[in-house]
User: What shape does this take?
Amino acid sequence: MALGLKGRTAPTGSSTEENAQTQAASQEIMMQRNGVALFTVFLGLLLAPSSQAQQPAGNICADQPLPSPIAVPATVVDLLMRTPEGKDALNEAKKKSKPLEPAKLFRATEVSLRDSREAELVVIGSYPMTGGDNDWFWIVRQRPQPEIILFTGGNCLGILSGKTSGYSDVQSAWYSGAGTLTTVYKFNGRHYRKSKEKFEENKGP
Assistant: This one.
């Protein structure tokens, strides 16, 4: 005798087809939803604010050890001491009868500012080649002969990821008790020129 389940009938052919169609429709809806989600993520990345590209890639600060420091070439030292700041330092030292040793007044590191194997120098001065409440930074292009393409004051110098005329944009930061002054410099084909400046006051406790 065959045993069966009372009150339950076997599914018909039409109901089986309906179930299959329902499952297929559900799968298609899920695939569409996943596709929309992936497109939304991609669109968000594509439309991300371009200002993110202008965040400093790395800071060079006067009160911190330089990354991969190198000796400042004598030709660069001579160039810096022939600037108005260098001449003032030499004259002041002469008045005080305190001879200077220019080679000991600077330290430097190489940075890559353009799509080239050649690197520029970031040079930081020490007293008297420095300001009263800030440090002095020079960017020197070494070839075909040493040339100063940026001179600025501050506490840190940051190389930005954005480029102008083939050279990376540069940002200086000057910290004080009142706030922080940041200045962005862009290359004009020969030298760096100030592009924009922003001062942010320190917030109280």
User: Anything to note?
Assistant: Confidence is low (pLDDT under 50) at residues 1-16, 35-55. DSSP finds three helices and ten strands in the chain. Residues 53-201 form one domain. The longest strand covers residues 192-201.
